Amino acid sequence: MIDAGAAEQTDSAIAASTLLSQDEAFARIRLLRSPNIGPVTYRQLLSRFGSAGAALGMLPDLAGRAGRPYQAASERRVQAEIAATRKAGGRYLFHDSPDYPALLAHSEGAPPILTFRGNTALLDRPMVAIVGARNASAGAIRLARDFAYGLAAAGFTVVSGLARGIDGAAHAGALAGGGTVGVIASGIDIAYPPEHAELQKRVADQGLLLAEQPPGTEPLARHFPTRNRIIAGLAAGTLVVEAAPKSGSLITARLAGEMGREVMAIPGSPLDARSHGCNQLIRDGAILVQSVEDVAELLSGFDGLPKFPPRGVTATVEDWRLASSKSAEDGDSAVASLLTSAPVAVDELIRQSGASAPSVHMALLELEIGGKLLRHAGGRVSLA
After folding, report:
1. Where is the DprA winged helix domain (predicted)?
2. DSSP per-residue string spanning 315-348
3. Three-state SS across 206-272?
4. pLDDT at 378
């Protein structure tokens, strides 16, 4: 049980529509902040044990099967995080809350817990992501602002990452037109880049600001790809306005395509390297768009579900129990022997091992909690 002070902080920091008790909400935050617990593992633990509190109690045993000692995140650390979230004006949004965005919930590796500031009603509108170059040209900045304004005025929520260049222009245009969601790579209390501090405040006050990282987290290079997956996962389609090859914007577009969402690009001059990424996307199959109407028409036929839902674990609690008893006997060693440092699809491990899907997932879960497994995009895993 959490103490009275922590309970009050937890209650005030949880989205009002959630049905979680204070103790379970606290336990979920603690579970996700514990070592070697990512989005996939978090959901599998909840599926197997029924609650975060029960899962926390089993973590040392699960890690012990992989031959490693284990210590979950401390209650004091979680209490400090909740206090910092509350101080920043933020609240928690859990993956099974009615306010959690439906499209993001269908994306692979969706964050189990987000912190937010602002109006979650914007998540109920159709969403489109607008991304592009940080060192964007003046013409591209104007295009991003005009497209965002027109789409927001037409009833879309515009999603972007609050970066310099195209992102900032998209947020500014959408704020004037109707509504925007900013997804940041830092904690909810950190403004980045510093010159966008005022813009980030406007997004939080007039739109919605989302963060996956705990408060106080400075944006690191590894946080931006995970931020990009949230942007792609929120939206029915992603529009790239201007981007160089191998840019973060193209990563967002690729993720959107893998999720079954629409990928759109505005063509540019082949003489400008900042247009090469968009032109490459169009060559590779992205939809060429030239107006707000083009985007609105394309997304109007989106039925609210991804074209290719991610592969997930659908095992029942009883399946997990059976798998747990078998994994200790023969599942772990069989699965571990098939793994190398090269990522391989979980489906392939199931096929080659000859074991049941719950048994394989159970073995992978134990290896991951024990620090011996890494998860990669596309449902692939490798040895750590």
Report:
1. 324-379
2. --HHHHHHHHHHIIIIIHHHHHHH--SS-EEHHH
3. HCEEEECCCCCCCCCCCHHHHHHHHHHHHCCEEEECCCCCCCHHHHHHHHHHHCCCEEEECCCCCCC
4. 74
- pLDDT tens for each residue of 276-314: 999 999 999 999 999 999 999 999 877 655 444 434 333
* Pairing mode of beta strands 373-376, 344-345: unpaired
Beta-bridge partners for 183? 210
Is the pTM higher than 0.90? The answer reads no
Within 10 A of 363 (CB to CB), how many other CB atoms are there?
30
Give Dmax over CA atoms of the chain in angstroms.
Answer: 64
Q: pLDDT-based confidence at 80, cuts 50/70/90? A: very high
Domains and CATH numbers, the chain: 4-91 (no CATH), 116-300 (3.40.50.450), 317-383 (1.10.10.10)
Residue 184's H or E segment, with its range, is strand 180-184
Residue with token string 């629409």: 262
Distance (Å, rounded) from C-alpha 275 to C-alpha 273?
5
